[in-house]
Write a structure and sequence with these properties.
With about 160 residues, the chain is of the alpha/beta class. The protein has one domain: Rossmann fold, CATH 3.40.50.450. The chain is built from six helices and six strands. It has helices spanning about 35-50, 60-65, 70-80, 95-105, 125-130, 145-155; strands at about 5-10, 25-30, 55-60, 85-90, 110-115, 135-140. The protein has a six-stranded parallel β-sheet, with helices on both faces. Helix 4 links the parallel strand 4 and strand 5. Helix 1 crosses helix 6.
Amino acid sequence: MQGKGYRRFDASAARPTDPGCDTPSVRIYFAGPLFTAAERDWNAAFVGALRSGDHEVFLPQEQEPGRDAAGIFSTDVAGIDWADCIVAIMDGADPDSGTCWEVGYAYRKKPIVLVRTDIRRNAGYNSMLSESATIRVDLLAAPVELVARDVLDALASLEPNAG
């Protein structure tokens, strides 16, 4: 269910798991900013943790080098279409515009997990994003391993065909 039925993921209510131990293999499209070295490094570490749970992850920064704008667009759209779900990073005072577009494109097609680790109190969710989410994982300043664990638990908690 999406829209007003989104759920905020409560890790304290979830069963503890190792990355992917109880989660069936899922094809994930990773949506997030990728324009600084810090963003690309965080993305790679986060996706590495998801992949260690035997999940397939489409990471745009791995697909885009050497492509022009049209090639990037078509490759990323194909990645979203391929995926079972979207995991979108919502950090920043205003989330990345490309990430927001990817969430909008996926809306009503597949589950959307919004992830926020940003510690700024005034940087909340835009209502168009929060209402398109299937589930939200909010972990202020959490280490990447904890974020990955909670995202995997959130994915496991989704009903089949929740998109």
